[in-house]
Design a protein that fits this description.
alpha/beta; Rossmann fold; 39% helix
Length: 254
């Protein structure tokens, strides 16, 4: 069995120091994504919010490390790294696969006695109890690239570059396997409030599937729909960041 590193610097990227921020926001990337995806969020919210982003193994500066193709195993590895952060107000934001992963880490935090998250933002993902027979990870490289093009997950020019594909496909395959083989444990829920965000033209999640996140918390639930597809949050970044900033400010005063 491979021993996974537990040093915070291995897993957490903090692009702007904001030790006096009223709340911490930890961001979880999508399948195939990396921590740098959230650099604009950190730029926009600092110094009022201290933003951290999780860097999964197998990409960017962790490319030499083996990928983790199990969502529970990945959550188990991240939990001890973020547990010390729970001594201050803490919120999670996860997009697509990152939404499920943020939820699983939140479950582990509460099971360990940590205070509930200030807010759990779940973006571009159906609720854990809503399944589809997805099997992209079982397809060949061509099928995976076609899926990435469909979702506009990666610049189309990069997807035509063999060297780039050689670098990114192993992590993408592993992440897709992790999310597509994930099974929610019935009866589990968090007590932190959940805020679901989706694009109105996202082929990966319907409004009904996103609304079902309400079943996974004993706290409050809200949902917001934006124009766009699976990666609506790229074109709508200003609106999404504004929502987070306002919502976190309001929640801290309540």
């Amino acid at each position: 069995m491979t021993t996974l590193p537990t040093a915070p610097d291995t897993w957490i990227r903090r692009y702007h120091q904001a030790p006096n921020g009223t709340v911490q926001l930890v961001c979880f990337p999508h399948a195939g994504g990396s921590a740098s995806f959230y650099f604009p969020v950190s730029t926009a919210l600092s110094p009022g919010v201290e933003v951290s982003a999780v860097q999964y193994p197998g990409r960017q500066d962790r490319r030499a490390e083996p990928n983790i193709d199990s969502l529970p195993a990945l959550a188990d590895a991240i939990f001890p790294v973020v547990r010390p952060l729970a001594d201050r107000p803490l919120a999670f934001f996860g997009h697509s696969m990152g939404a499920l992963l943020a939820y699983e880490v939140a479950l582990r935090l509460e099971a360990d006695g940590a205070p509930p998250l200030t807010r759990l933002y779940v973006s571009g993902r159906r609720a854990p109890s809503r399944y589809r027979p997805d099997a992209v990870h079982r397809q060949g490289d061509a099928g995976i690239v076609a899926e990435l093009r469909r979702l506009s997950a990666t610049d189309s020019e990069l997807l035509g570059d063999p060297e780039t594909l050689e670098m990114i496909l192993p992590a993408i395959k592993s992440d897709y396997k992790a999310v597509e083989t994930y099974e929610h444990t019935p009866g589990q829920s968090v007590s932190s409030p959940i805020y679901a965000l989706i694009g109105d033209d996202d082929p990966k999640v319907t409004a009904e599937e996103a609304n079902a996140w309400a079943e996974h918390t004993t706290g409050s639930f809200e949902m917001r729909t934006f124009p766009g597809g699976h990666f609506y949050l790229v074109d709508q970044s200003a609106a999404v960041i504004r929502l987070i900033a306002t919502d976190l400010s309001t929640s801290r005063r309540s």
